[in-house]
Structure formats: structure tokens, C-alpha cells
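Hi Y.,

Following your request, here is the sequence exactly as I used it, all 437 residues.
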Amino acid sequence: TPFRADDQPVHGEVIYQYSFLDAMQRGYIKQITAVNLKPTEISFVYEGDERRHTLAEVMELKEETWFSRGVALAPECNKHIADASIQWLEYLRNRTGFNHQLIAVACSVAHAKQVRDLYRERNLEAEVIHSGLDKEEREEILTALKSGTLDVIVQVQMLGEGFDHPPLSVGAIFRPFRSLNPYIQFVGRIMRVNTPNAVNHPDNEGIVVSHVGMNQDANWDDFKGIDGDDQNVVRGWLEAGEATPPEDDREGTRRRLRPGMDVTQEIIDRFVSDPYFDQTDDAAIDNLMSVMREQGIDPEVLGLDRDELRRRILVSREQEGAPQTLEELPVQPQRRRKILRQQLDEQTRAAAGRICDALGEAPGGVRIANLGGVPGQNNLGAAIARMHRAVNAKLGIESGKRRDLTLEEIETILPQLDEVADGVETELQEGLARVKS
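Below is the corresponding structure, written out as C-alpha cells. Let me know if you'd prefer a different format.
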């Protein structure tokens, strides 16, 4: 490939180029289709202002960073992306019985865990992989993926350049890529064929699912444009790399659990699918006939002229029954309650880490722990204990009673964790200031 994941130039002279289009048409890589979720209506609260927007207004807002990031982190939008990606995964699996798998990309580790839980709620085996895991944990997850035990793997800045696992056939985008390079690196994870050199084989199709509000259609259009003539423009895309992310998006820092934008409702009634190329256009039909001849098959002898091939492709499409509309998948309340109870614990711990960062206190230090009042051998442990105490107070329950929480109570407290964490941070800041004085 003419680009690297670390944005460094590839030195040397280009002596031969082979386009994605040619590779897809000859069955060397999967035929890729982008699927966008387009809401007919979306309601959200931003900076205290409740707004309701139509699709036309969403298309105007999508280039705003606050909006695309808000969509990426919104549980309501994430739920719809997960449902759509599962529909496409099941569609691919049902055609031949092959165990296709799904790869998702998230904004952060905390966000990846929330995305993972959406798939688990829907009865899929899902895991998160990121650089913070130790080597043994990463190897265990990759072994489960390659053995087919996992349905879904959610990654954060992992599985990039050079990762090769052909059964990954659906890519779900839960983060807004700001430039072409990382977008292509992610799409590349689902481009390896499952059946080599088999043109139009049903197991050699890849689906990229995203939400129009994350503004990834521009990257898709640029991706398709790589096979165009203007190589200088393409080189500019690839060398530009990813723009420096906002402070709370950078690796090693901890973001708030909820964005400033809160999506309260979203109505999606259809997908918009855009294949990398149209299999029925003249160039694609001519290429298919050429490939058949290379394989010793004379299409004319079989009565397959261009019009007949085009007709058969169209009939095949109609018979395949590809998803056209979003079906929200059912979630059993007991299963959701169990998963959200675990999520409450994980997000409480994540908020404690953010508190330590905000106060400038190392997790392994002891200044917070020395304030007393809660157990904890170090700052992070003491912050976690204080967060748990504050959450219980907000819920009005005693310690050790989390198992008795109802689903409604958990769903109510989760969006309030940032507010609870702000209170704990203020309390600790005042305590540390008193000690210093």
C-alpha cells in the first residue's frame, strides 16, 4: 500500500500500480459497500438547548466537530449502528453459512467497552482490544477471534497496518475519522478475501457501517477516488495524516463519560448503501467477461452476452434480500440489567481515573489516599472508593446493595456519573488544598 499507519512516507520509486477497482473486480480483495444510517429526525440537547433536526439539517451539521463527536458518543446512535451492523453480519452469514465476523472502532477504551456491551446485550460474543492490555490478554483475545469464538472485536488504535484476518467482513465505525489515512487503514481490515480468486463470491463482500452524522461519506468518496488520475491529490490525502485530536481525545488522557451533546431520540427508517463500484455498468461487465475467459470459460458459448450477465446480476441482487431498513434488535431486560450493572462499575472506575488526571495526582501516589475516610492504598483506589460512595448516595442505597438495583435505576444513574465525578473532584480538590495550607 502507498501509505503507512504511522504517517511516515514510503521511500522509493513507484514502478507499478494496481487499483482497488481491478483487485475487487478480479476477486483479489473483497467488494466493499458503505452503508450509512440516515435519520429522518434526531433530537438532542446541546449546551442546555434542546433541538430537533431533520435529515437535511443533519447533513448541514455533520461537518461540525461537536456534532460528529456527539453522534459518535451518543448511546442512541451507537445502538442503531450496532443493530445495523448485526443485520449485515447475519445477512452475510446466512448466504453461505460462513462464520463472518465484525470489527468495530471506538473513540476511547471507555467508549469501546460501551460498544462491546451493545453487542453482548444482543447475544453476540464481543471483546475489546487496546494497547493498555498486557501481551497475554491481547493474545488471548486474538486467539478467540481467529478461532471463531468471537463474533465482534472492538478496537482502539489497534489491529492496524498489516493485521490479516479474512473472516472480518463487517466494519462498524463508532468514531469520526478526521482524515483518509486512518479510515483506509480501518476499511483495510475487512478487505481480505475468504475465497481467493473467486469473482462475485458471496463470502467476498465487505460492509462498512457508519452514521451520516459522523461525516464519513467524505472519506468514502475520497477512498473511491484513489483510483482516479490525480495522484498528487491522493498523495496529499495520505501524507496529511490525522489532525491533532482535541486534548480529551488523545491517547493516555481520560475523557468525560458523556459528551456535551445528548441525543434523546433518533428515527432511522432506511439505510443508504453505496458500493465501491456498480457491478452492472459496462466496465464491470466487460471485466467479468474477461476474467471468465482467463479461467477458460467462454461466456458466449454459455449464452452470456453483456445484457444477459447484467440481467442475472440484477436478479441475483433482488433474490439476496440484503437489509434495506433498520430493525432494532430485542434485548432481554435481565441480560441488559446484568451488563449495565457491570458497566456501572467500569464507568465508576473510569471516572475515578479522570479525577486523578484532573487533580494532577498520579494513580499510584498517596496524597488522595492520605485524606482518609475511605479505604484505598493509593490515589486511584481512594478515588474509586469515593466514587462508589458518592454513587450509592445518589442512588440512596447502602454499600453492598448494588445487586438489588432495578434496570431503570441503573439506566438513570449512568448518564449522571460525570456530574457525580465533578462533585467528588471538587471535594478532593478542597481536601488537598486544606492539607497543603
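Residues 229-253 have pLDDT under 50 and may be disordered.

Thanks again,
Q.
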